[in-house]
Design a protein that fits this description.
With 124 residues, the chain is mainly beta. It is built from no helices and eleven strands.
Length: 124
């Protein structure tokens, strides 16, 4: 029923930019907070960014502040992650998630649904 599908990943050189998209279906998208997480091989799935139900509140991990921007278009049932000034340490699989709550959160356990992920590789 609920599906989250990420897209927009790929290979980019350090200093470049990418915009990730997450298309949602099977839920009332406009009333739930959304988040982005990432996971590198052998590491935990870490918080990246979150946005509340209306888009009025946004929070970021310290490692991406000033470089990444999360946004949403409720009319299109889509959340975005604009990624600028990319670094090799940003290389990971990026996952979109839905919390089933209105408030933004950085706690992985509070997200109910997850996409399959999209690979981002940043070269030097």
């Amino acid at each position: 029923q609920v599906q989250l599908v990420e897209s927009g990943g790929g290979l980019v050189q350090a200093g470049g930019s990418l915009r990730l998209s997450c298309a949602a279906s099977g839920l009332t998208f406009s009333i739930y907070a959304m988040g982005w997480f990432r996971q590198a091989p052998g590491k935990e799935r870490d918080f990246v960014a979150t946005i509340n139900w209306s888009g009025g509140s946004k929070y970021y991990a310290d490692s991406v502040k000033g470089r990444f921007t999360i946004s949403r278009d409720n009319a299109k049932n889509t959340v975005y992650l604009q990624k600028n000034s990319l670094k090799p340490e940003d290389t990971a699989v990026y996952y979109c998630a839905d919390s089933n709550d209105k408030g933004a959160t950085n706690r992985r356990g509070e997200y109910e649904y997850w996409g399959k992920g999209t690979q981002v590789t940043v070269s030097k």
